[in-house]
Amino acid sequence: MEPTYISAFPGIGTTRMFVGNDGNIYEASGGSRAWRNNNPGNLEYGKFTRDNGAIGTDGRFAIFPDITTGFNAMTELLSTNSYQTLTVEGAINRYAPSTENNVENYLKSIERQTGFTRSTPMNQLSKDNLLKLAQAMAKHEGNMIGKKRFVSKHEKYVWVTVGDDKVRPEHEILDGEIRTWYDTPHPGEEYGCRCHAESVD
Length: 201
Fold this sequence. Notes:
alpha+beta
């Protein structure tokens, strides 16, 4: 049975490290960024995501303890006034602006998956239907599954800073140090920390 994750932080490269309530650390690798973060909506880290269960950040996006919490946060976002006053089309345009997405293809995908028309007012969708919309959006975004593994207490990494004058003094002294994942703190764990982990040669 998978443990409950209580905190999370970036690992080496694109991996994510999760601290379980059993005291062990687990690594998520492969798949999509949304899957590794348990964040199907790719919601950015901040007060909203913290209030809705985020346990860490990858530097930009929130990391949630599980996919259910991630979907709940996405549904809560779609329940806010900034979305509830829109139609489905307006909501998709707000969520996935045309500067970054092919909105017409996005809308066709949502209509095909959910049966909701683009003119449907968001405030007419129930919580269950908002979840259905969120799941369709996540599928369109491409939530690909990777793999999780237990991290041994003997696995090591190298702490690396960016090397400028904005590095926190307590992190500067860790630069180049070989550590285990069970040592605290971790690079990138504290909000705004730009340090990262590299493999031990």
